[in-house]
Amino acid sequence: MTTKITEKMCFSPAFNYVDDGIEHGVLSPFETKEIILEKGQQIADGFKPLTSAIKMLKDVPVKMRDGVTIYTDIFLPVTEEKVPVLIAWSPYGKSAGTAPRYKNLFNMLGMGNHWNSGLTKFEAPDPAYWCAHGYAVCNPDMRGIAHSEGDTTMIGSQEAEDGYDLIEWLAAQSWSNGKTALTGTSYLAFSQWYIAAEQPPHLTCINPTEGLADGYRDLAFIGGIPDPNFIERLQVNHVSATGAKREDLIKEMAAYPLADADVWQDKVANPSKITVPAFVIASYSNTLHTMGTFRSWRTLGSTEKWLRIHDRQEWPYYYDENNTEELRRFFDYYLLEKDNGWATTPTVRYSLIDFQGGNQTDIPAETFPPVSSETKRYYLNGKFRTLQQTAETEDFPVKYVADGLPGRSSFQMTFDKDTHFVGYPKAKLFMEVAGYDDMDVFVWVQKLDQFGTILSEFVVPNHGAALQDFTQEGASALRYKGAWGRLRASMRQLDSKLTTEEIPAYSFNQVEKLAQGEIVELEIALSPIGLAYKAGETLRVVISTKDELGSVMPGTPGCTPDNQGTHILHTGGEYASYLQLPVMQISPKE
């Protein structure tokens, strides 16, 4: 049956699917058939010619357990040997590799389109590469998308069950060796947390490359603050040629504002149920996926698992030639049973960012944070606006007006020796608000060079003027600016079962407004960090009434804070606010 949770979901009509062979790619017109794509063939102008012949099984029907039929494209090497299959689960159009919207996106990022064949589903593996190395690639249109039947849901048990059914169907095909894997970035990564937790018998391994893990905490209400704008952008992909409906998360945000609603509980991944080998890819810089990726890594049930923390945005990382070759070593080991030494790969490889061209990457460790990382508190001094290792004995309140300038307060410390921070930072702030009953608080940890210049770095190839404009106060996933966190004060209640000394976790199941004169304790989880400071450089922590990093991607607004009145930050005595940072006791160079 269709999952019962769909009875509580809010639906809207899906967007119209334009089946003109352009809008959704040159191979999008619907027809169930077999095609041989010849070696040297170019799918569309600007794309890489095929390096080997490929058998394409187009618009193949696959029946789900409730009788709904979805359609998938399958790309196979031209061989009599049975092969494993890589699955790219998302709503992004199985034939849309040559769609104008994706061509324009990759051009904007400075990647161009020559790196792939045009058969590549958005954020998915390129069939041309993988078929040439003995793999099949499956690009499904999930239920409700294009010609697939049923209504589209977004994150949760319905997608998980459908993914399970597709995996088991693929493993039973005559061309299959019975082994399957999930791979891809962003949506194709976070769908893996849900599908793999269902434990399909023929799922062999997974490769989540940066993916959120909680529809409420990582997407709709980050820090308890509603943010519908990026969701609206995502839902535009829910297009149907059959008159399907689509789950409308914007409506659900209004109908179910707290995280304990069944709809949101269904969108909480449980990676502890995942038992297959996992090669997890993360970064510090992805303002949409970083928190969920690291949370999933911490709770992942797999006994064979690896974490690689890189220093780029997910798409240039995933399609980099060397990184693709390394991923093939992982898949070759588990899907083709090649004895290639993959098992000796360090469990964790992390990066250390310096924002000045000297990033260190692939530093090996057994855990994250490394065992040589130790938490340390730096207390806010309100009088001198500094950070210090001991708290002031008396409180010195710092005030700033929510709707005035600067609308923030910052604190700094300059290092007298090289210092590295690797792990999970947080802020504990004692705050009140005058003239209102709530606060949206944004925290940002920056690096300043010896001249006081605020540093950041692009994580995509394009560093041009237009992208400078977009990323100066937005498009935060494309330009790394430091660790960040946010919290709505009325949603400050901690989840006692999940909170640790290093990482606060919130229940988000009640609203507790602030009374006049009430000082509340806010524990704000900040994004994981791997940041290097040299002697003479400065760490600045900014506490603001607005999201100064801005939106996730260009052209999409960020969240709208609910701030009025005057924020009062207390900085001493019994209200000793502090920034807690993970300090490396031993430099990776030593």
How far apart lie the N and C ends?
A: 58 Å
Uncertain spans:
none
What is the mean predicted local confidence, pLDDT?
Answer: 96
Mind summarizing the main beta sheet? 11 strands, mixed
Proportion of strand residues: 25-35%
Shape: globular
GO molecular function: dipeptidyl-peptidase activity
Organism: Carnobacterium maltaromaticum
Pfam family, one: Peptidase_S15
Domain Xaa-Pro dipeptidyl-peptidase C-terminal: 328-580
Essential attributes:
single chain; 590 residues; alpha+beta; 11-stranded mixed β-sheet; 8-stranded antiparallel β-sheet; 12 helices; 33 strands; 17% helix; globular
Protein model, in words:
The N and C termini lie far apart (about 60 Å). A hairpin with a 2-residue loop joins β31 and β32. About 15% of the residues lie in helices and about 30% in strands. The protein contains 12 helices and 33 strands. The chain is α+β, with helices and mostly antiparallel strands and about 600 residues long. An 11-stranded mixed sheet has the order 3-4-5-7-6-8-9-14-15-16-17, sandwiched between helices. Strands 18, 19, 20, 23, 28, 31, 32 and 33 form an 8-stranded antiparallel sheet that branches.
Concise overview:
This protein has 590 residues and is α+β, with helices and mostly antiparallel strands.
